[in-house]
Design goal:
The complex is a heterotrimer of chains A (251), B (189) and C (480). Chain A has 251 residues and is of the alpha+beta class. Chain A has 2 domains: 1-22 and 198-208 and 217-251; 35-196, Glutaredoxin (3-Layer(aba) Sandwich), CATH 3.40.30.10. Helix content of chain A is 38%, strand content 22%. Chain A has a 7-stranded mixed sheet with strand order 2-1-5-4-3-8-9. Chain A is elongated, with a radius of gyration of 23 Å. Chain B is of the alpha+beta class and 189 residues long. Chain B has 2 domains: 3-29 and 45-71; 80-188, Immunoglobulin-like, CATH 2.60.40.420. Chain B has 3 helices and 9 strands, in the order αααβββββββββ. The radius of gyration of chain B is 25 Å and the shape is elongated. Chain C has 480 residues and is mainly α. Chain C has one domain (2-476): Cytochrome C Oxidase, Chain A, CATH 1.20.210. Helix content of chain C is 73%, strand content 0%. Classes of the chains: A alpha+beta (251), B alpha+beta (189), C mainly alpha (480). Bound molecules: protoporphyrin IX containing FE (HEM) and copper (II) ion. Protoporphyrin IX containing FE binds at residues 25, 28-29, 31-32, 50, 53-54, 57-58, 61, 110-112, 366, 370, 373-374, 378, 416, 430-431, 453, 456 of chain C. Copper (II) ion binds next to loops of chain B.
């Protein structure tokens, strides 16, 4: 409950902040699309694997976080978890939560998994890697170290990799359920004809495409579009009602 | 002219001739010299004929709908993996096209594009400022396919170019004074 | 039949419309000449003219439709003259502001002012707010007028009667004249699209006021733009059709058309479909959900069906093998119907998604809308003008019509239009001031179109001389 309220508040905040974003941010979701992900070595529960060992089995979504984050990482993961619980695509995918902080150890990551009660969920993999730089370059992830707050300033990034290791779709920021189902559909050979880019069109978005049901849920923009027509019909009803019976009275 | 353009023009001209013909014919039946003496007046059974007319018209429209609706462009080649991907950023008044997507904060990359013939390619089209069009003209300068470049969105257009040669890109959404000069091209080999 | 004040207002109206019409046709010819490389115009100048031509043409013929409906409504309900005067003042102010924004302020974002182009200022800074305010002034003026007409109608007809719903029952006592029914249906569409215009302008101004911090969704803005632009252009024709239903039988010396269940049904259906047809402007925006695209095609197809099945058939059946007393008025109505139907065929082709892929924003688009405007609603409005200048004196129009005028009109009009259609088929883009060398055929077509347009202009002037003369007479006689 408490968590949800916090999340809502956070969402509203990030939403409203993104109004002011300019075009520079806009295309970062397009960066490195269709490129092959760097096949870095990652460590899971003490064992080392190449990244390809995961994506060749099933498509993966990489979430890059760090455990000492006091900012976006925790709400981001929480929201991702909640959203995924509601998305029943029947499609296969795994979520790879990877630390981009060299200070994070293997056990830090396991602790993180436990915080979200995901330590026994086979769909979630918590891992570290020694090739952080290579991976960041490959996904286009940017983290700036701020020595005064001892924090990284970074964006919330999800990178969708298909089973050939190709980056098919990236999501930056806190995304809604539709966007995440789009991502899952895309790494499973789905095709979505169009994407909105973060930042530019947060205000009054028209439609949200939901690949699970294949339907478009009208967003707030759609409601706005319908307002004039609805207002007209109400007005006509009102006018008609107000003058009802006048005719018969006169004749 | 490409066959599809020609067919549409012919369809239109045929309809034009039929409509003008009917109007001229109906007009002539109303002239005094044609109505006098013949004792005829008006259409017999108008309501029955009106219903027939309505049914025929509705049937034609329904047939046209069922024939054309499955051919929408949104999922062209959706089940194939593109052999090449081109990132297109439109802005007043040029197209930046590249195999690489740009880095945020830097101008979009722009390079000469060469695409393989007979293979599916994908254009990821967006705009940096206002609405633009992204229309592909074939080697005979006929428009073959298009999408819009809308700020805030990426539109994905997939196509297979069979004919090798130079293809032009034109902006078909009015975007300001130099709109007509907003042009680019690529080579299909 | 109408009082003097009313006649004066109307004749002033007609004179204004005619003057602006000739000016706008000349602008059209200049555009075609530029596209044909026969003359040079600087780039911004061309698009200023394009903006003004589009906005003025839509404005005057909308207003002409309003004037005719207002005049004929007098026969059934009590309408005030002040509301017409109000609309007229607002229209004049709006048009003057428009011309100032374009010709002094160099505003040239097109009359559809597609977001966010007007905010990418490439002209004087005041021009964008003035242009947008001009549209606001027009919208408010026309909105007040439309609501006023609706109120007047509802004072006499109940809701059910106004929509003709009593015809769906076995027995009914009250008759709704087709004119009233069509007017109500049209006014509803007009109110909806004008409210949309105001909403859209509000969103524009909110962005300007926030110093461009508040960015709107380009897709939403485009939808709103075409809900307004497409619907307003379409309703022009429906205003004319209302006039046609009322006057065509009358001037031909035949009994009035009666309403019936299928006419009522057809127009009720049209009212709904017309509100969804505008989606066809977004076909090439792949981000628009596919469901909307399909609805767009369905609505575009079926919006035409009832109106065509009922109106076209009625007009043809009305003339077929009936001795008609042909005058300029009913001939123009008849030809206007033909132009409307031909434009409709062009529109149905273009509103087919799979054809729109290569027709979208080509010259096919101006081709079809010029057909139903220049050879459809313009002719119907001229028919009304022709009739009304005689009706002022309770005279009926002399029977003589000039064959030459009609032939010039048809050759000029359809020749001009055919060049647009051919341009569309040759993939020539619309809204290009010059055509690239690979598309040089567009320039040749443009030159031919300019020549035909001159013929059309001559025909229009010839047909209008009589109207103008009488209007001047009415106007000046009243003021003395
Ligand atoms: C013979 C008379 C006319 C001529 C020569 C003419 C010419 C033109 C030309 C050359 C264009 C630009 C086409 C392009 O996109 O390249 C145009 C656009 C337009 N015309 Fe006309 N026109 C005529 C009559 C009319 C009439 C009667 C109407 C309406 C009642 C009208 C409404 C418009 C509109 C709304 C546009 C769109 C402007 C835009 O794209 O922003 N025109 N016309
Ligand atoms: Cu452009």
């Amino acid at each position: 409950m408490y968590k949800n309220i916090f999340l809502c508040f956070f969402l509203i905040l990030t939403r409203s902040l993104s109004w002011g974003l300019d075009g520079k941010e806009a295309l970062s979701e397009e960066e490195n699309i269709y490129q092959k992900i760097a096949n870095v070595a990652i460590t899971v529960k003490g064992k080392e694997y190449p990244l390809s060992a995961f994506y060749s089995k099933s498509p993966i979504i990489i979430a890059q976080v760090f455990t000492r984050c006091t900012g976006i990482c925790m709400p981001f993961l929480l929201q991702l978890k909640t959203n995924l619980q509601f998305i029943q695509t029947g499609k296969s995918y795994k979520i790879l939560v990877l630390s981009f902080d060299p200070r994070d150890s293997e056990s830090d990551m396991q602790q993180l998994a436990e915080t979200f009660s995901l330590q026994n969920d086979s769909n979630w993999i918590f891992a570290t890697t020694d090739e952080i730089e290579t991976l960041n370059n490959s996904t286009g992830f940017r983290a700036l170290w701020d020595s005064s707050s001892l924090q990284y300033s970074h964006e919330a990034l999800l990178t969708g990799i298909n089973s050939e290791g190709i980056i098919k779709k990236k999501l930056i920021g806190m995304k809604n359920r539709e966007a995440i189902s789009n991502l899952i559909s895309e790494i499973n050979h789905g095709f979505i004809p169009s994407y909105s880019i973060p930042g530019q069109n947060s205000m009054l978005n028209c439609f949200n495409y939901d690949p699970v049901s294949g339907k478009n849920k009208p967003g707030i923009g759609f409601l706005i579009m319908a307002v004039p027509a609805l207002a007209t019909f109400l007005l006509v009803l009102l006018l008609g009602y107000l003058s009802k019976g006048l005719y018969h009275r006169r004749t | 002219m490409n066959p599809q353009h020609l067919n549409i023009l012919i369809l239109f001209i045929v309809m034009l001739i039929i409509i003008v013909g009917v109007f001229v014919y109906v007009y002539r039946t109303s002239l005094p010299r044609n109505t006098e003496g013949s004792g005829q007046s008006g259409l017999s059974n108008p309501n029955q004929k009106r219903f027939l007319f309505f049914v025929i018209l509705a049937a034609v429209l329904v047939i046209l709908l069922t024939a054309t609706l499955p051919k929408t462009p949104y999922y062209y080649f959706a089940n194939e993996e593109p052999a090449k991907v081109v990132f297109v950023v439109a802005r007043q008044f040029s197209f930046a096209m590249s195999y690489q997507s740009g880095k945020p904060g830097t101008p979009p990359p722009n390079e000469a594009i060469e695409l393989p013939a007979g293979k599916t390619v994908e254009f990821r089209v967006t705009s940096n400022d206002v609405n633009h069009g992204f229309a592909i003209y074939d080697t005979q300068n006929q428009l073959i396919v298009q999408t819009q470049a809308m700020p805030g969105y990426v539109n994905r257009l997939r196509w297979k170019f069979e004919q090798p040669g130079h293809y032009s890109i034109r902006c078909l959404e009015f975007c300001g004074a130099a709109h007509a000069f907003m042009e680019s091209s690529f080579l299909v080999k | 039949m109408a009082e003097l004040k009313h006649k004066r207002v109307l004749s002033l109206w007609i004179l204004t419309v005619f003057l602006l019409f000739v000016a706008s046709i000349i602008m059209g010819i200049l555009m075609r000449l530029t596209q044909g490389n026969a003359m040079k115009m600087d780039v911004s100048g061309f698009f200023e003219i394009m903006t003004v031509h589009g906005a003025t043409m839509i404005g005057i013929w909308f207003v002409a439709g309003m004037a005719s409906v207002h005049y004929l409504l007098h026969r059934y309900v009590r309408v005030t003259t002040w509301i017409n005067l109000f609309a007229m003042v607002f229209t004049v102010i709006g048009v003057v502001m428009l011309w100032c924004a374009a010709f002094i302020g160099k505003f040239h974002a097109g009359w559809t002012f597609l977001y966010p182009l007007p905010l990418f200022v490439a002209w004087k800074h005041w021009a964008t707010p003035v242009f947008l305010s001009a549209l606001g002034v027009l919208s408010v003026g026309w909105l007040v007028w439309s609501v006023g007409m609706l109120v007047a109608i509802f004072k006499k007809y109940t809701l059910q009667q106004a929509f003709g719903w009593q015809y769906f029952k076995k027995v009914h006592q009250v008759d709704t004249p087709p004119f009233i029914l069509i007017t109500v249906v049209t006014l509803i569409g007009i109110v909806a699209c004008l409210l949309t215009a105001l909403l859209l302008l509000g969103l524009f101004f909110s962005e300007i006021a926030s110093g461009n911090k508040l960015v709107h969704d380009a897709l939403l803005m485009k939808n709103l733009t075409y809900f307004f632009g497409h619907t307003v252009a379409n309703e022009i024709l429906y205003l004319c059709l209302a006039t046609l239903y009322e006057l065509l039988p009358e001037v031909s010396g035949r009994p009035k058309w009666k309403n019936s269940w299928y006419i009522a049904l057809a127009w009720n259906a049209t009212m709904i479909f017309i509100l969804f047809a505008f989606f066809h402007h977004m076909y090439m925006d792949f981000v628009q959900p596919e469901a909307m695209q399909v609805i767009g095609q369905l609505a575009s197809y079926f919006a035409s069906l009832p109106a065509v099945a009922v109106t076209l058939f009625s007009v043809l059946a009305f003339v077929f093998k009936n001795s008609i007393r042909w005058t300029t008025t009913n001939l123009l109505f008849f030809l206007g119907t033909m132009g409307w139907i031909i434009g409709g065929v062009g529109a149905v082709i273009d509103s087919t998604i799979s054809a729109n892929v290569f027709l979208h924003n080509s010259l096919w688009v101006p081709a079809h809308f010029h057909t139903y405007l220049a050879m459809g609603s313009v002719l119907m409005s001229l028919a009304f003008f022709n009739w009304v200048v005689f009706d002022f004196y309770n005279q009926s129009e002399p029977e003589k019509i000039s064959r030459l005028q009609i032939i010039l009109l048809l050759i000029g009009g359809f020749g001009f239009l055919l060049m647009f259609y051919l341009g569309g088929a040759y993939s020539i883009p619309r809204r290009f001031n010059v055509y690239p060398s690979q598309l040089s055929i567009g320039s040749a077509l443009a030159l031919a179109a300019a020549a035909f347009a001159v013929v059309y202009l001559i025909a229009i002037i010839l047909i209008n001389i009589r109207i103008v003369k009488r209007c001047i007479k009415i106007f000046s006689s009243a003021s003395s």
